[in-house]
Amino acid sequence: MIHAVHNDMSGHVNGPVIQAGYIDAVNVSTGPVTPVPWQLPRSASPFTGREQDLRRLHDRAVPGALCVVTGTPGVGKSELVTQWAHQAGAQGLFPDGILYAGLNGFDLHGQPTDPGSVLDGFLDALGASHLTRGDLSARARHFRSVVTGRTILVFLDNAAPTGQIEHLLPGTDTATVVVTSRNQLSGLLTSKGGTLVKLEPLDDRGAVDLIRETLGDRWVDSDEPHARNLARLCAHLPVALRIALQLLVADPHTTTGELNAELGDERERLEILETDDPAVAVRAVFHESYRKLPSDQARAFRLLGVHPGAQISLPAAAALTGLPERRALRLLDNLVGASLVDKVGRHRWQMHDLLRAFAHERAEKDEPADGLRNARRTMLDWYTHTAASAGIALSSFEPPPFTPRAVRPNLTFADDTAAIEWLVDEHTNLTAASRLAHNLGEDEVAWRLAVALGGYFYRRKPWNEWVEVCQHGLVGARAASDDRAIGLILNGLATAHQELNQLEPAEQHFREALEVWSRSGDRQGYARTANGYATVCAKTDRLGEAERHAMAALAAWSELGDFRGQGIVHNQLSGICSRAGRLEEALAHSSHAAELLKSVGDRFSEIWAINNIAEVHRRAGRLEQAIELFRTVLAVRQGLGDHYGQAVTARSLGMALRDHGDVEAAITALTRSLQLFAELRDEPNAIDVRRVLGECGPANT
């Protein structure tokens, strides 16, 4: 029996309708399936210390964004973006896929990747290989058409400074583009409106965490100081740290301390951080960037490697390169753009230690010997004569130890404030310049730097640097057989040891200086040294001997008609009399000292005399007068920027307040004194302040 079949259909139908008695299956084709590319390279493990950078990239790499991630060679730009892209992909942020291209912009052995071949690969991955014909512009248009409307990430890794990126950018606001490059690609960012993400080396914690993840907790916890030192020697660069850690993994009998000792030799450091794969060796990574530099930038880069300090100012860079400041500034900005130099302040730049070692290596290999020698000498002369000019502005009451000659760039100092600011900024470089001059046998530079910096060292009290610079200078002065330089440097060296309470070497150097002055007949030098020797005698409770030396100094200054010198000795005599309990004599000497020093306009030394007046009042029990004067002195010293003087006065003020019964205010003053002495790295005085704080109560030690 055949039953009638009736088919009803309702609604709107667009297209053909098939009617059949029985349908087993229906296959509907909607066209070719679009592939979802996932081209990310494998991420490195372990990966740590970059949480904040990952968040920063996540916030900026939004749909429609163009981000350029830049940073110094070996800092981990590619790995950061790879890690972030894996995380973002796993979170479903790019449902239409991730495209990746290694552009080899800084490849040591090959050529930068051709943009056309990158486009062919992208089109093929997107299922549009039939569009890979035509010239570069045509393929770029096809690529933009294919990705329009897709939520996709385009990761362009290791881009060259120019010429690779423009044709690889999608035109849709649904696509995200992240580029890594050692160059900041400022032209691209300006024309396309992208954002720059600068990646810095790992911080201490991140570097130690990387060591911990690689070697294990026990390795780090048993010797964390060595772990931190290893991070420092590797400039906190992930590429260098990973190489160093693999050396430890490969040879478990080598300790971190032993590896650190090997890496401590800057000349050997790059050699140690080699691998069997030149592409990831530290030297090769740096060389990829160096060989891309134009010749003038390459020369500036390698000469920066022979600069003795970590930071360099614009005038120093101009002196080193022999260029006008404007031209030197342009080259420095170029090197910042290439991520080979960091700008760390207004007209101040620096390289990390590994790059400096590489630049120094290139200078010795690529710079003509005469050119390198002249560059070093010009730079050392510039530091020496500029320091001498600053010293004259700072110690205008002292006759200059030598007449500085004009150097280029020629810096002038309007007053002692301008001089002290420059010297504070440059004192690390000046110490390093002294060390370099000593190592190169530049005797004249070494002794001139030592005497030029005497006034600054006396005011600011960086004792260890003071001792080092004087030791280098003394070698140079003796080689030059210059008695005046020898006497000045022996006096400075003795004063530094005396301030450090190293009284035996201080006394020895004062005696040697007195012999030099007596032999040469230099009464001014004799007076200065005899007064300093009196301080050592007073500290060792030889008060009679101290007074004899001070009176001899006073007689010499009186012969010379030097009121300032007389004032300084009267202040010395005030301290000696105060120690001896002769307080009224002490007050008379310090009061006379203040009058003499005020009459010649030496405010810095006058305040020392007023401080001594206050100290006499404190010892005599006139505490209210002492406290008022100490507060006045402290305010003036703050205005003068005299950190050491502030520390001394704050200690005395604290002691006066304690004796007056105001323990809370005493603790505040003493704590400030302790902070200042700690900043000055003055441990002998810091110990004394801790003792006084302890007398205010056990909780304050």
What tags apply to this protein structure?
8 strands; Rossmann fold; five-stranded parallel beta sheet; elongated; 62% helix; Arc Repressor Mutant, subunit A; three-stranded antiparallel beta sheet; 32 helices; 701 residues; mainly alpha
> Reading side by side through the largest sheet, how are the strands ordered?
2-3-4-1-5
Rg for CA atoms: 36 Å
The total beta strand count reads 8
Give the integer mean of the pLDDT values.
91
Q: Which fold name corresponds to the CATH topology of one domain?
A: Rossmann fold
Low-confidence stretches: 11-16, 25-29
The coarse silhouette is elongated
The name of the CATH architecture of one domain is 3-Layer(aba) Sandwich
Strand portion, in percent?
Answer: under 5%
- Major beta sheet, specifics? 5 strands, parallel
CATH superfamily of one domain: P-loop containing nucleotide triphosphate hydrolases
How would you concisely characterize the structure shown here?
The chain is mainly alpha-helical.
